[in-house]
Amino acid sequence: MNRPYSAKDHLPGELYSAAQVRELDTLAITQIQDDGGDTCGFELMCRAAEAAFACLLERWPEEGSVCVFAGPGNNGGDAYVLAALACHHGLDVVFYTLGDHSGLSAAASRAREMALEAGVEPQVFRGELVYEGQVIVDGLLGTGLNKAVQGDYASAIAAMNAHFADVLALDLPSGLSADTGCILGCAVQASLTVTFIGVKQGLLTADGPDICGEVAFASLSVDPLLFHQLSASCERISWDRLERLNQRLNPRRGNSHKGEFGHVMVVGGDHGMGGAVAMAVEAAGRCGAGLIRCATRTEHVAPILVRRPEAMVRAVESGLELQPLLAHSHVIACGPGLGQSSWSELLLQQVLNASTPLVLDADGLNLLASPGWRRDFSERPVIMTPHPGEAARLLGCDIASVQADRFNSARQLAAQYQAVVVLKGQGSLIAAPDGRLALCTDGNPGMACGGMGDVLTGVLAALLAQGLSPWQAARYGVCVHSGAADLAAREQGQRGLLATDLMPYLWELMN
Ligand SMILES: NC(=O)C1=CN([C@@H]2O[C@H](COP(=O)(O)OP(=O)(O)OC[C@H]3O[C@@H](n4cnc5c(N)ncnc54)[C@H](OP(=O)(O)O)[C@@H]3O)[C@@H](O)[C@H]2O)[C@@H](O)CC1
Ligand SMILES: Nc1ncnc2c1ncn2[C@@H]1O[C@H](COP(=O)(O)OP(=O)(O)O)[C@@H](O)[C@H]1O
Ligand SMILES: [K+]
């Protein structure tokens, strides 16, 4: 029997869209057929159900019953086989169907026969869920979800969610888009999701992580060579994974000096927003920049120096004093607390005129989105770090449209601006202009608080200053930032986490 492994840190590094997994299914079925096996996908369906049932037994070893929901597609087919296995194992099975099961696929029909032979008694779900046990299996909708869930399906999902039992979702929670991680209408809230053949990209961003519960992956013993026939849509990264890929920074040479680790210039901090630059400065320092300068409003100079006397902080009150300072910098980080005043515009103008590697954040992005500011960064190493609100302004759409397809939004921004783009939020995405995408599975909702983005800006600037390319720095920086937040939250909890709490953990992880 297949033993799928669980824990999100052990998921494979390749993520796929629904269409790509369908392609993999077809390739795998063809191979099984060529090897003298069945021709319709029933073999794969059996492997999927076996893997999910193994997970069920491992997670709920004491449970004597299971309630199974089956939709009219192959996800329902998986559910039929799982129900048959449960019967053979001596579990009581309550089995509900939704949709028209007279037109099942060849594989799902065989699955249904198998279930009937095992003694499963399917009943059409009529709105009432009668089940006393602890485990519900959701086989309603999988990668074939193609419209918003409503009607009987929505009632079934509401009944599953209202029931006290835990839900094991087959492939993905019904109602979740495998491609975008958005809930289409409504979705099952799972405790455990066993996903098959390839990890669907939508499980790990937007709403995905909230409704999947724990994610386990079952390869269904598909020949790894088949995966070489198509490239993954997105790479999954995490702090642990970068370590396994040996992508940490090298230890420093003994005979090194501060000039080798780059000079960062942090630009921003209009009236009332000095903290933003202070945090970017400190994060850049804790991530190893050789020297940090800061150009800001007069009133912020002393407070920043008190907190971080290591930094060289200059007042640029007229805005014009910035130009010569920029000439001494290896990397510019612009945007934290920049504001949108004429002072802010004057500073940004000079930053955009320079050719130094740049991290552009916050109001730097908001100004860039306004008429007449649009730039093409193909000649300059640039990382842009929008949260969904800033991304919406840059794309000229609303936030809901950005979140409705984060993968596409990130890709589009990277292509439009010819820069590496970090689209922040749960499952932060990193997009390169050439179409590469990475998704970071670290991070937690404790990070949803003011200042976290400013810290990321400092982290990224320090990494560029130490010689990483924008793509490397963004991947590494997002993981170290989220990894630090996870360590901090593990100590004291997520609620109440502050951006400055990350500093000691950044320092630790960078070494
Ligand atoms: N292929 C393989 O070999 C393997 C596949 N595997 C399994 O198959 C799953 C994919 O199966 P699938 O392609 O049949 O799609 P599935 O998710 O069952 O749904 C399609 C049905 O749902 C319906 N429907 C859609 N949206 C709806 C809505 N909002 N509300 C109501 N109905 C809606 C849609 O109706 P239609 O719109 O076409 O009329 C259609 O009838 C995959 O996730 C994995 O679990 C594994 O066994 C491994 C081997
Ligand atoms: N729910 C969440 N899960 C994971 N990471 C999050 C979550 N909410 C916020 N973050 C991270 O925290 C940071 C917040 O940045 P941002 O919104 O720019 O904050 P600010 O502008 O206040 O500095 C980003 O790196 C983002 O990815
Ligand atoms: K499902």
UniProtKB/TrEMBL annotation:
Subunit architecture: Homotetramer.
Origin species: Bacterioplanoides pacificum
Occurrences of domain YjeF C-terminal (ranges): 241-511
Gene3D superfamilies (alphabetical): 3.40.1190.20, YjeF N-terminal domain
Keywords: ATP-binding, Isomerase, Lyase, Metal-binding, Multifunctional enzyme, NAD, NADP, Nucleotide-binding, Potassium
Binding-site residues for AMP, renumbered to this chain: K424, G425, Q426, G427, S428, G453
A Pfam family it matches: Carb_kinase
Catalytic activity, as annotated: (6S)-NADHX + ADP = AMP + phosphate + NADH + H(+); (6S)-NADPHX + ADP = AMP + phosphate + NADPH + H(+); (6R)-NADPHX = (6S)-NADPHX; (6R)-NADHX = (6S)-NADHX
Name under which the protein is recorded: Bifunctional NAD(P)H-hydrate repair enzyme
Gene label: nnrD
Note accompanying the cofactor annotation: Binds 1 potassium ion per subunit.
Family in the record: Belongs to the NnrD/CARKD family. In the N-terminal section; belongs to the NnrE/AIBP family.
Domain of life: Bacteria
Span of domain YjeF N-terminal: 21-228
Binding sites annotated in the UniProt record for K(+): N75, D138, S174
